[in-house]
Amino acid sequence: MPECKIQKNTSVCTCTYEPCSRKGLCCECIMYHNSRDELPGCLFPPDVERTYDRSIKRYLLAMQGR
Ligand code: SF4
Fold first, then answer.
1. What's the pLDDT band for 40 if we cut at 50, 70, 90?
2. In the chain, how many domains are there?
3. In a domain, 26, yes or no
4. pTM for this one?
5. Which domain holds residue 54?
């Protein structure tokens, strides 16, 4: 069974929502946001990530601006 990489993941996680209990637990992070039709914060550019809007619509808008 692969070892959990929570410490390494947390050290590189770009999500600024600090109270989150899923930080570094990428599998739970993805499942949580996917269940809400959202994407994980690390996929968003920093200025959009800080809004905590994780919607797919907001992601696509952000990517159009690149
Ligand atoms: S993206 Fe969402 S679930 Fe993942 S660490 Fe940030 S707030 Fe938590």
1. very high
2. 1
3. no
4. 0.90
5. 37-66
